[in-house]
Amino acid sequence: MIQFNEQQMAEFNRLVARYPEGKQKSALLPALHLAQDTFGGWLSSETMDYVASLLKIEPIEVYEVATFYSMYNLKPVGKYLFEVCQTGPCMLNGSDNIIDYIKETLGIKVGETTADGMFTLKTVECLGACGYAPMMQMGKTYREHLTKEKVDAIIAECRNNAVVNN
Amino acid sequence: MGRKLLLEKAHVENIRLYDVYRREGGYRSVEKALKTMAPDAVTEEVKKSGLRGRGGAGFPAGMKWSFLAKPEGVPRYLVVNADESEPGTFKDRYLMEFLPHLLIEGMIVSSYALGSNNSYIYIRGEYAWIVDILEQAITEAKQNGWLGKNILGSGFDCDIHVQRGAGAYICGEETALIESLEGKRGNPRIKPPFPAVKGVWGCPTVVNNVETIAAVVPIINEGGDEYAKIGVGKSTGTKLISACGNINKPGVYEIDMTISVEDFIYSDEWCGGIANGKKLKACIPGGSSVPILPANLLLKTAKGETRYMNYESLSDGGFASGSMMGSGGFIVLDEDQCIVRNTYSLARFYRHESCGQCSPCREGTGWMEKILWRLENGEGKMSDIDLLWDIQRKIEGNTICPLGDAAAWPVAAAIRHFRDEFEWHVSHAQEAQIRNFGLGHYADEIHVPVSA
To answer: pTM of the full predicted structure?
Structure first.
């Protein structure tokens, strides 16, 4: 069975405390972020049911939210998730070429994960970095002004980090 | 060189930190408001300033505040809309990233005016690192007595909380944002009741954009009348413009709304001209939802007058020959860009972001995307162009929230002004796969008939 540790539970309680008495459901979005970060980068039904029980709401209330918002992953993703913006301003600055280059370099299609479980490629809609296009999100950070060279460097950096952290 | 009210200190080293921000004159507006002004007097100054909502709609902020219901014993809420998701718009991100205390300061003063003891910042989930910046600023403000109980001995209590969204453009619409803040799907509510009467948790709520709330700081410091002297007509104060696309200097610029569009694009003070020595073909001046204009109608109105960077001038000519200020997301397209492809990209965006609640939007956005894909990929028919026009007409005005309009307008404007380029994609389907239509006549001077 999955469970938050003491520190994660404290964070969960901090989230709930922001809202008025009895309105703990309001903490659902931030709680799902916390759960996703904690339990392997995606939301399994077990994870969603656990969040429902913590917030004292029905599981369906969690499912309907988890399926609505694009940042929640409903299936496992690689250790590093590349979310490349493809909307208007990024497209004007060559985001299609960047997406193609990542596909070619990693040997995967959009939505797929590399066989070693390291990388998942997703395309996303506008991330609010239009002046620094083309760009992608990776975890909590934005990687901007992407070029093929920069993509190579990011992939190398991820591989290196994975080795160091293992 | 225009006046800067918001970004003046953006380049001061470590301005993100409280001590530096305070040393540079920060939090004066809180002292002034809480020590010398009644809450209604603060609202009055905002009304006098003529400040218009900076999120896109341009509704007068002071008027919005004055609509807030104040029933006895019911809490009221200020919610800051930091769900910046309109393609082309990245100004709030800049403001929060570099001047977090300016937003916090504006929120304290605004919360005081509105009587909100717990105010929220709803920030788009992807801006995850900015959440940390804001929470750090809130902690510092609290440690220094600007938040918490009985601020400055005024008897006013206020706390600020940051809530992360999770990836949904629709949550920038204020009732969808409220739903999301309550932990639900971002489906917009039917209005009335308006949030001012029944907002978050059924309580009276004001939702304002980040830039709007930040602008309250100079308004209180200098007075609403002084603020209203900057700019022109009903475009008072300064506006943040996030410029992007094919320009030499993309970025966030604070302008007073008296400069011409031509200066904004070509002057080195702002966009620095079109990148790679190319020619200007078209521009979406206020975020992806507003009508795209060809170069000739962008720089001059249909009457042949200079077009300026303000609410009135950008919308001069209505949708027939004008556009909108919108959120200030200024997207520039050079001569090598394909209007059909750009319109397709935006149509895909709106299909992805439609919440699915209203059928005209849910079905229409997907249909438009498919037709635009056909046209762009050499499989379109001439009749598709009229079909597109027909679909967008049937979405516009027929949905609960403005996302339907926002999806319809870019398609309508693209066909209105660039119809020959759409037709060329059908008549020269093969050729359109290997080269772009180019500049066409879109930058040609428009002949203005001399009136008698």
So the answer is: 0.96
